[in-house]
Amino acid sequence: MKIIAIGRNYAEHAKELNNPVPTVPVIFLKPDTALLKDNKPFYLPDFSTDIHFELEVVLKIAKEGKHIAEKFATNYFDEIALGIDFTARDIQNKHKEKGLPWELAKAFDHSAPISSFIPKANLGDLYNLNFELQVNGKTRQKGNTKDLLFSFEKIIAFVSQYITLKKGDLIFTGTPEGVGQVHKGDRLEAWLMDNQLLNFEVK
Ligand code: MG
């Protein structure tokens, strides 16, 4: 399986990092070795001094498809989770300055903690989903899917023009504003509506 992630999909987050609001989705990939499941602790890597959390709504692809039309895209995902797109911001900033790809900042081992999944049918309106990240009991990110620049269906239609989607692939759909650095000993907890889905420690 593969992990596809969308950058700058909430306008307020694009602005906080001084990036333009995109007119087409910005995408990058993480390998399956980035996954961190079952609320296992995240160990800070030694190659970065500025690992940032980015809380994101994650889609699980339900069946294979390419060149998927936007109007049919809803049939291609069936479950939703929360994930953290851990980012080595110091490395990313250096690579952005030089116009280099972001993989070393985004695709490292365990850079994609993922929660259990909820069937989308149980979540009601997919474009009014509140999600929230607390670090050590303090709210740091609060988002709502109504603020997505590119809808889930638009993302699936766009990505599948270039990359075949397969059952079990994951799409990280972008983070709202409020991203920040994690430190040793932090506890990250995240909710999708009333469901606490993430609860793990940084070591
Ligand atoms: Mg992200």
Distinctive features:
33% strand; Fumarylacetoacetate hydrolase, domain 2; binds magnesium ion; 203 residues; four-stranded antiparallel sheet; 4 helices; six-stranded mixed sheet; alpha+beta
What does this structure look like?
By secondary structure, this protein is α+β, with helices and mostly antiparallel strands. It has one domain: Alpha-Beta Complex (Fumarylacetoacetate hydrolase, domain 2), CATH 3.90.850. 15% of the residues lie in helices and 33% in strands. It has 4 helices and 15 strands. It has helices at residues 11-16, 89-98, 103-106, 152-162, and strands at residues 3-7, 26-30, 35-36, 51-53, 55-61, 77-84, 87-88, 112-113, 118-119, 130-135, 138-144, 170-172, 180-181, 187-192, 195-201. The strands form 4 sheets. A 6-stranded mixed beta sheet has the order 2-1-12-5-6-9, covered by helices on one side. A 4-stranded antiparallel beta sheet has the order 11-10-14-15, with no helix packed on it. A hairpin with a 2-residue loop joins strand 10 (130-135) and strand 11 (138-144). The longest helix is centred in the last third of the chain and has 11 residues, at 152-162. The protein is globular, with a radius of gyration of 16 Å. The protein binds magnesium ion. Magnesium ion (MG) is lined by residues 5, 7, 54, 56, 85, 174-175.
